Amino acid sequence: MSSQKLYAGAKLREIRTRLGLTQKDFATKLGVSLPYLNQMENNNRPVSTTVVLALAQEFGLDVTELNTGDSERLVSDMREALADPVFAEGMPPLADLRLTASNAPALARAFIGLHRAYRQTHERLASLDEALGREDAALQASPWEEVRDFFHYCDNYIDAVDRAAEHFAESASGDIRTLAQKRLEALGIRVELTGSEALRVYDADRKTLTLSDRSSPQTQVFQLLLQLALLSQDKLLEATLDFARFHSEEARAIAKIGLANYFAGAALMPYSRFLAAAQDCRHDLELLSTRFGASIEQVAHRLSTMQRPGAKGIPFFFVRVDQAGTITKRHSATRLQFARFGGACPLWNVHRAFETPGHFLRQLAETPDGVRYISLARDVSKPGGSYGAPVRRYAIALGCEIRHADALVYADNLDVNNANAFEPIGISCRICERRTCHQRSVPPLERRLTINTDARGTLPYEVT
Fold first, then answer.
1. Helix, strand, coil fractions of the chain, as percent rounded to 5
2. Gyration radius of the chain over CA positions
3. Which residues contact 234 (CB under 8 A, 6 or more apart)?
């Protein structure tokens, strides 16, 4: 992979625009001719080593910006959309999709949004009870999906909010819970613990924040920080929301809670200290959980956000699924992307985590594009806090490309150099290219099938 040519025209143009330079001035500072720069910005030439070095030396830029996962995500999302039966002509060549993602990312996102609108309209028309009274929502993404995509395309890292949370946490002389309570008290807010089922209730008139004493200490601290973010960081959150330009007030409200959640996680696990601790203990989730007073899920999610320019951590993917296999949280800073519709690959170890509660499962996996990963899975059941209260059962998975294995304690004693040790996984059955998968639920939509009535293998058809 080290010899692969780097085409990053859109990113190069973005950097030049951000620096406020003309093409001529930019070319001069990079030490290349104007025509050569123009060809690189239009992806007619790969970005040269000379330019990469000049970006680092002349502008102090993190050159990994040139190869962010945004293009790979767009390619993955377009492939999934184009696998829909509505596109009867079949899948365009992968090279064409990559060219579109690199040269016209806005067009790619518009296409993905159009397909999403089509799917939602189709699904709502097929379900009359859902369609009734919701005609106005049928032609746009749901607020939840719009917010999910916002965080997805931000690499799940919001710099201004992250730095504000880190600044807040570094001002703590004692533990973070004490600091949060003092800041709330300074705002005239009283914090109470009750036996309520609600995790958090804020009464603005009485200036009272009520937390459930049934929830874990980690959850209580997180809710304290979340409420503090909503009250003390309102201008920052609103400015970030203005930048996002959501299409509905519902999406904006959901995103505000998401940003407050982000602040809470970043305050509980401040970027620089958390990154150093993670590297020191080789990303041992249990040690990090103890050191920062956070839950295993909070730690895993925080690891997937460590993408600060100039101080990036390992690019992780993070996902949470319910018992039905539905993805309820997802993010990937790696080339592995998750299906936007439906569940995850059944061969993935995250589904087996429900069978071994309280234990970490390790898996070496390889996707159809030949990229190899190490995946860690564990159940994260959430008790109701009293006898008879429902238990919410989830499983999470955290992983990265195998080239980072030395930095993970979970890779110890795994045969990472043995190709046979890697299990074949995919994104979802309908866009997976594997022809003989024993867990395939539906045929790949972009492939023709051969049916032999006189023979039956693992599948009742052959993928040609």
1. 50, 10, 40
2. 24
3. none
Among 158-162, 232-236, 451-455, the minimum mean pLDDT is found in 451-455
For the chain, the structural domain boundaries read 9-67, 70-140, 142-268, 299-433, 434-464
* Distance in angstroms (rounded) separating the CA atoms of residues 381 and 421: 29
Residue of 337, 279, 335, 322 lying closest to 303 (CA atoms): 279
Distance CA 107, CA 114 (A): 10
- Architecture of domain 299-433 in this structure: 2-Layer Sandwich (3.30)
Q: What would the two tokens of residue 409 be?
A: 């304690």
Q: Which residues pair with 376 in a beta bridge?
A: 362, 398
Cα angle value 353/355/360 (rounded, 5°): 40
Domain 9-67 sits in CATH 3.30.1490.20: no
Name the pairing type of β-strands 361-366 and 423-424: parallel
pTM, rounded to two decimals: 0.71
First to last CA, the chain: 29
